[in-house]
Amino acid sequence: MKSSRRSFIKKTTALGAAASLSSLPFSLLGNIQSDPIKIGIIGLDTSHAPAFTKLFNAENPKPELAGFRVVAAYPYGSRDIKSSMDRIPGYIDQVKEQGVEIVDSIEALLQKVDVVLLETNDGKPHLEQARAVFKAKKPVFIDKPVAASFADALKIYQEAEAAGVPMFSCSSLRYQKNVHAVRHENKIGEVLACDAFSPATLEPSHPDLFWYGIHGVEILFTAMGAGCESVTRFSTPDAEVVVGTWKDGRIGTFRGMRSGKHDYGGTAFGTDGNLFFGPFEGYEPLVVQIAEFFRTKKSPIDPIETLEIYAFMEAADESKRRGGEMVMLREIFQFNS
């Protein structure tokens, strides 16, 4: 994150196809410090918070997670999403059982920790919360959704870079075994196409796909990579279908299921065969990536790709508003730059 803010904005407007701010190879074991890296959590309104704490604070953690300790948490994220608020008391009890101190402000938290997990389930306050973390110069992982609008997501990445603070954000589905293998292990050769799916339940305070559709869209982009140029959306009584066209002519689709019980997955099609994704395999693969990020201060994901995910979802909303017309992702970038 050493390029200027001006150059970063220029790259995001152009979709940043040729540049990567943060894609460097990493070692899962890294250099474990004798003193643990102290982790603070903002937001105890999601199951991710106690789940991540349990992995980091285990009596005998995996080698990749050794050298860390969640030491403090500020419970409040959403104050207007009842399904999130109602979970806070129970999650407070769970993390306290893991030896975590509960504090009464983000400022108090930041004085006690080296790095931050921003776990607030509600994306609306993420920009304000992230600004406090950036001011304190603490590396931060921001859980999905990175924000409740593309405009706020772009501001978060721009302000992190301007402050010189390492950050990244993603869905845990990015690091499921087969999803990761298609992208990073050449499992099926060159990826020709991908069809991804996930639940896509709604939260009125967030754009349509940002709440749960993000999981399936992240699967799609993990397989396909950045470079989507246009989006067309179709609605059925039980699903939202979004078709993306990549600059090299490849087609990727996301199907967001509205009703019934559905898993997370998809199929990637490559020059050397096909590979099915799913089912959900838990949070540990993501937490291992977070640990490596906290050690190296290097994001495993190019910010351009993450921003393109949110532009894809916002373009899908715009396509629906226009009755299924094709929407170019550059419209989303240009409008918000």
From TrEMBL:
Pfam families, per the entry: GFO_IDH_MocA (PF01408)
Gfo/Idh/MocA-like oxidoreductase N-terminal domain residues: 37-166
Lineage, opening ranks: Bacteria, Pseudomonadati, Bacteroidota, Cytophagia, Cytophagales
Protein name, per record: Tat (Twin-arginine translocation) pathway signal sequence
Keyword line: Signal
Coiled-coil residue spans: none
Recorded GO MF terms: nucleotide binding
Signal peptide location: 1-19
Domain of life: Bacteria
